[in-house]
Amino acid sequence: MASKRSFMNRFRVVAALAVGLTVMGGSRALSEDLSARGLLDRSTIASYIRPLIDDGSYTGIAVGIVSPMGRQAFGFGSTSRDRGRRPSGDTVYPLASITKTFTGVLLADFALRGRVRLNDPIGKYLPRGVIGQDNPLARITLLDLATHTSGLPRMPTNTATRGRQTPGRPYSVAQLYDFLTHYRPVRPPGATFEYSNIGIGLLGHILEIAGSTPYETMVERRICRPLGMESTRVTPTTAMRRRMAQGYNRQLKPVGLKPFDVGKSSGGLYSTADDMMKYLAANVGLSDAGIVKALLDAQQPRRRVPGKENAFMGLTWHVRKLRGREIVSKNGGVTGFQSFTAFSRADRVGIVALANGNPGNRSLDAAARRIFLKMLSDSEAVGR
Questions:
Q1: Rounded distance, CA 97 to CA 104, Å?
Q2: Domain 102-211 has what CATH class?
Q3: What are phi and psi of 124, to 5 degrees?
Q4: Which residues in the chain land under pLDDT 50?
Q5: For position 362, what pLDDT does the model report?
Q6: Where are the alpha helices (DSSP H) in the chain?
Q7: Helices H, strands E: what count in the chain?
Q8: pLDDT tens digits, residue range 87-115?
Q9: What pLDDT, on a 0 to 100 scale, did the predictor assign at position 217?
């Protein structure tokens, strides 16, 4: 078996001939050529994704895959139940909780530049009086927030939506401070893992305070601009709105653009498969942008997830050790939409799947994982 180093060297040689490659279906001959060079063709992707469209789980799905050979985007189904347009690499979807990974990258970037320290307590940044010294929350650190080990609940106790999008205004800073003032945790910070939307919402707010800059501006300047991600924003541009996929609730009624429950930094970004492929390419080492160091730092396993074998938390990323490599992933969902992304830096491959419709389960995650595992298997086969 060839060594990992020789395998990657062969990949890099061919990659030089395929920089910037993007395919939306393409001809059969082109698909076969891509498959022969280690990329998945449309028929392979379709075998995993098409059943999710046919059984009514989703209206449309856009899939992007990244490897040293290039990037491919595939669309299945429709962006809307009545328009019948196939999704493409530039169709816009809510990223939902994949947004959290951008917040983790900003935290890593701030820490690397000395703007914050991971072990800083949250009280260092919040206004006086929000958390008293006798409040157990005062001991929560930025690392606790980023690894979902803060002891904060999934959702704050002073909103009635409990995981669904708010019908009116977004969760305010005043509400956040009110929650922190009155909430008493049932476990100490750092004791155990408990996924917390409000925790990442709080982390984003603290980064805004530390950086004296709105969250969306920080994401655009520090991540999107260096990576050329022009269609990733908290507030979609007019052009992005024209390319937006339509989501539906359980009654199959269209859902509009609404603020995420507990903060932009927890689930507020919109993006496309094309932009997310740029993000993935940088995360797996196929970019020399200045933010790459922070991307790599955010991936590093920081704390073990109790009860799950070989499972760890990075800075908001979920990390699983598999076959001697680290698989990094994150999913997301809001009413009418779901999202999933995963990558292996060791193999320099990654996948993103963005879906609209009336999803009532996590079948998108399962299908995307199967595609990703095939990518890993094919990478191993090329190296033999």
A1: 12
A2: alpha beta
A3: -65, -25
A4: 1-38, 161-167, 382, 384
A5: 77
A6: 4-15, 28-36, 42-54, 99-112, 142-146, 173-182, 197-211, 215-219, 225-227, 238-242, 264-267, 273-283, 292-299, 363-382
A7: 14, 12
A8: 999 999 999 999 999 999 999 999 999 99
A9: 97
Assigned token pair, 302 = 């920081």
pLDDT of amino acid 380: 63
Identify the pLDDT of residue 359. Answer: 67
Question: The whole model's pTM is what?
Answer: 0.87
Between β-strands 303-304 and 270-271, what pairing exists: parallel, antiparallel or unpaired?
unpaired
Question: Do 4-98+242-256+269-382 and 102-211 agree at the fold level?
Answer: yes
Residues in Cβ contact with 153 at an 8 Å cutoff, skipping those fewer than 6 apart:
183, 194, 196, 198
**Contact residues for 214 (Cβ-Cβ < 8 A; gap 6+):** 208
- Does residue 372 contact residue 366 with C-beta atoms inside 8 Å? no
Q: Locate tokens 């859902």: which residue?
A: 255
Predicted pLDDT of residue 87 = 96
Q: Which are the contacts of 326, defined by CB distance < 8 A and separation ≥ 6?
A: 299, 301, 319, 320, 344, 345, 346
Delimit the domains of the chain by residue range. Answer: 4-98+242-256+269-382, 102-211
Which letter, b or e, does each residue of 292-311 get, where b requires 16 or more Cβ atoms within 10 Å of its Cβ?
bebbbbbbebbbbbeeeeee
Would you give the DSSP letter of residue 306? T
| Torsions phi, psi for 321 (to 5 deg) | -90, 120
Can you give the pLDDT at residue 160?
56
Question: Of 44, 93, 89, nearest to 373 (Cα)?
Answer: 44
The third-level CATH classification (topology) of the domain covering 4-98+242-256+269-382 is Beta-lactamase (3.40.710)
- The DSSP letter of residue 97 is G
Residue 196: count of CB within 10 angstroms of its CB: 23
Q: How confident is the model over 339-379, as pLDDT tens digits?
A: 999 999 999 999 999 999 876 677 999 999 999 999 988 77
Q: Which residues contact 374 (CB under 8 A, 6 or more apart)?
A: 40, 44
H/E stretch holding 349 reads: strand 349-356
Q: What span, in angstroms and rounded, lies between the C-alpha atoms of 267 and 262?
A: 8
Which is nearest to 228 in space by CA: 281, 166, 154, 169? 281
pLDDT, position 56 = 87
- For the chain, what is the radius of gyration of the CA atoms? 21
